[in-house]
Amino acid sequence: MHFEAIRPDEIEKRSFEILTKELEEDGIILPEETAFVTKRCIHASADFDYAKTLCFSEGAVGIMQDLIKGGACIVTDTNMALSGINKKKLASFGGDLYCFMADEDVAREAKERGVTRAVVSMEKAARLDRDVIFAIGNAPTALVRLHEMMKEGILTPKFIVGVPVGFVNVVWAKELFLDSSVPYIINRGRKGGSTIAAAICNAVLYSI
Fold it and tell me: Which of 63, 69, 78, 155 is the most buried (most CB within 10 A)?
């Protein structure tokens, strides 16, 4: 172990070189069409488990790219992910970024109904007259409500980035979409988070 003198603008490039080399040393070969997404998740977390647990529906990356190029918006369940996703890049394609979790009407309704703000946020997002990519990094109840609205015929999400982190209903909520007709990028298991949701969105944005 030694200190590397690296220019600030070269740090990200060097990080990707290191993680790519370590993947190769471990004999892990990522599919070419999804490797850049998985690598950005590893880069954001320093966790190589994403090479094994990140799941992509057929043609997922291309579908998400086309949605973004077509002006789709992204709805996320945390202000942290809202801050981390590249708004300027998304806006260059005509898309907007939303998080309704801190909205007063959402908090009030959630309290009155005895449900999470994530549930009400997803219901509010369903009323957007836009193509929506849902980027869920924190609340499994957001995924559960999205799945319920699909079954109720209220909403058909265009795309799901499902990477909530935690212990309560997290694994189960992610599994709901693995056999659905909705295109997805989902991380199986307990790991994930707002940072990973943002990393996935940015990976796809930067690839266009």
Answer: 78
Residue 32, CA atoms < 13 Å, CB-side half-sphere: 0
The sign of the torsion formed by the CA atoms of 178, 27, 50, 134 equals negative
Q: Which residues contact 52 (CB under 8 A, 6 or more apart)?
A: 28
Question: What is the mean pLDDT of the segment spanning 43-51?
Answer: 96
Phi, psi (deg, nearest 5) at residue 37: -75, -50
Q: Distance from first CA to last CA of the chain, Å, rounded?
A: 36
Phi, psi of 114 (to 5 degrees): 70, 35
Q: Is 151 helix (H, G, I), strand (E, B) or coil?
A: helix
Q: Which residues contact 186 (CB under 8 A, 6 or more apart)?
A: 54, 55, 160, 161, 162, 163, 174, 177, 178
Of 19, 12, 32, 197, nearest to 99 by C-alpha is 197
Instruction: Considering only CA atoms, give the Rg of the chain.
Output: 17
User: Which strands, in side-by-side order, build the sheet including 184-187?
Assistant: 54-56, 184-187, 159-162, 132-136, 73-76, 97-98
Residue ranges of domains in the chain: 34-207
Q: Look up the pTM and report it.
A: 0.94
Query: For residue 6, what pLDDT band results from cuts at 50, 70 and 90?
Result: low
Per CATH, is 34-207 categorized as 3.40.50.10230? Answer: yes
SS3 state at 111: helix
Active centre residues (catalytic): 43
Per-residue pLDDT tens for 151-160? 999 998 999 9
